[in-house]
Write a structure and sequence with these properties.
Blueprint (H helix, E strand, L loop, with lengths): L3 H8 L7 E4 L5 H12 L5 E6 L1 E3 L4 E3 L9 H9 L6 E9 L2 E9 L13 H21 L8 H14 L3 E8 L9 E9 L2 E11 L4 H14 L6 E8 L4 H12 L7 E6 L11 E10 L2 E11 L4
Parallel strand pairs: 1-2, 9-10, 10-13
Antiparallel strand pairs: 2-6, 3-4, 5-6, 7-8, 8-9, 11-12, 12-13
Helix pairs in contact: 2-3, 4-5
């Protein structure tokens, strides 16, 4: 359990070497670097405090939202470390303001931070995070009867909380008519480079004409040839199982702007839920294979 008096004492000492303060930080890579640095210090422990900024001679307690939770980013941060450090974390109230503290206890073995290097692992990690965001979307009753943009905003907020850099409704590429730049629903960057595009749509049936427009838009907007992109469908139907079977049969045989190489309807075999499904189609683009994830999320009817 976090000792509030211990945190207060450190905040009264601007020269504390075992204290890292950030006004707001939820990017797993940065948290991992901070945790590794503190775990390797000679002091017995150190703190990362969110909601506090450092001035020249003191610290300012600015506070964060009461609903601010770092559990998932911390979990992601720990997965980026060479071994598991000893940590405690939780919310505190100081001067009537909510802050978040992570206590890192010094360990004997050196802990270091490493970024996953291969694109496949980054892809799998992103798909998992998107899947988890969709689970949370399903659980929110306010998104049962709402617009595509409002659902996209919720997904975007959760992805940003996990450390992804999102550019929402970015004007890029060409529109479906080919006349001018269109709007990407969710454009994701990694290290300031294009990473993936999420094209989202609401469906209340397998409207293939409407689906075709969105699938083709992905290739109009993806001007660089991403290793993978996502078509995310918010589906409101009574028989989701039947819808999914028909969706798979359609997208694995339709004609795409780039050559269809293969399809995998068992891509979600490691995910056990029946009302969020995804499959992949693999395409040859300029001599390289790229992947399109087709993710369908059942929206419960009222």
């Amino acid at each position: 359990m976090i000792d509030i008096n211990e945190v207060k004492q450190l905040l009264q000492s601007p020269d504390s070497k075992n204290l890292i303060c950030r006004n707001l930080e939820f990017r797993p890579q940065n948290l991992a670097m901070f945790i590794a640095a503190l775990s390797n210090m000679t002091e017995g422990y150190g703190y990362i405090v969110i909601g506090v900024s450092k001035n020249t001679n003191n610290y300012s307690i600015n506070g964060i939202s009461n609903g601010f939770i770092l559990d998932e980013p911390i979990k992601r941060a720990l997965s980026l470390l060479s071994e598991q450090p000893l940590i405690e974390f939780g919310s505190l109230s100081i001067e009537g303001k909510n802050i978040y503290a992570i206590k890192v206890i010094n360990v004997e073995n050196e802990i270091f931070f490493s970024i996953p290097q291969n694109t496949e692992s980054l892809t799998d990690l992103f798909i998992r995070d998107l899947y988890l965001a969709c689970i949370k979307l399903q659980a929110r009753k306010i998104y049962v009867s709402t617009t595509e943009d409002e659902r996209n905003d919720f997904i975007t907020d959760l992805l940003e909380t996990n450390g992804y850099h999102i550019k929402d409704q970015t004007r890029r590429g060409s529109s479906a008519s080919g006349k001018s730049s269109g709007e990407i629903d969710i454009f994701v960057e990694n290290n300031r480079m294009p990473f993936t595009i999420i094209e989202a749509l609401n469906l209340d049936s397998l409207n293939t004409n409407y689906l075709d427009v969105h699938l083709d838009k992905i290739y109009s907007y993806d001007t660089t040839g991403n290793a993978f992109n996502v078509c995310l469908s918010y589906v409101k139907v009574k028989d989701f199982g039947s819808f999914w079977d028909r969706y798979c049969n359609y997208v694995k045989t339709r004609k795409y702007p780039v050559m269809l190489v293969s399809s995998d309807t068992n891509a979600d075999k490691d995910y056990s839920y029946s009302d969020i499904r995804f499959m992949t189609t693999t395409h040859n683009r300029s001599g390289k294979n790229t992947r399109l994830y087709h993710m369908c999320v059942k929206i419960q009817e009222t």
